[in-house]
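Much of our argument rests on the idea that a fold can be written as discrete symbols. This step matters because it turns folding into a mapping between discrete strings. The record that follows shows the chain in one-letter code together with its fold in token form.
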Amino acid sequence: MRKEQEFLKKLELLKEKAMEQGSRISQEEVKEFFCDETLSEEQILLVYDYLLSQRITVTGYMKSGKIAESGGSAGNGGMSAEEEGYLKEYQEDLAALRTERPGEREQLLSEIASGDAKAKSRLVEIYLPVVLEIALQMRCQEVFLGDLVQEGNVSLILAVDLLKAGGVQGETEAEWDMCLRKEVRQGIQILIEEQTELKRCDKRMEQKVNDLDTALHHLADEKGRAVTIEELAKYMEIPEEAILDIMKLAGEDLYDKYKDNGKADLI
């Protein structure tokens, strides 16, 4: 706890430094300021996000819903037309929300501590643009932007719902800001990892189906007749059970034909 309090004090000092520089600070200055803290990349991003929430520009970092030049990997490429359309429509929806009043977040945290459900809803509303910013920062080809935003919003709602009465005693607005952002990032990261792994599995299955199809036709051409499951399994050097699993993926008709006729010819 003491270490966290010291970190928050240092965060406030960084904020004061940025304010003295006209509410602007560079990424290099932030990293240098915390050089003795050995912060992870995720923690540094949370610091950037906190500064942005305090209307402080972090040079080279994301601002106003756009991806900074240093953000994202080259492999991400540009957005699809579908994503661009989604982003435009979603930003229009966010623009229609009530403007946040000075000091409103701090007031909401106090009301949430008293068990005010409406305050929770309003805090979620205020943080919706933040979720979009984080989703844009973490955007990747494997997952549609709208899915990232939706998952981030769910993580936000769950995190805000944990701000129970008495649970924020001694906590500061800055600390809760970083905690909420962290929960959103974690939720989005889990979704990305799940979808990426799912697509890897799909590609592996697709390759197995292609290999089966190639083997079937090669053996049929070589023997001048239809081939059996035993011959195919021996040729591919895999168990017959594995052949059946791949056949299910290749098409129910092919699988049903074999299942109904026992070890009949395949083609």
About this structure: Residues 173-223 form the longest helix (51 residues).
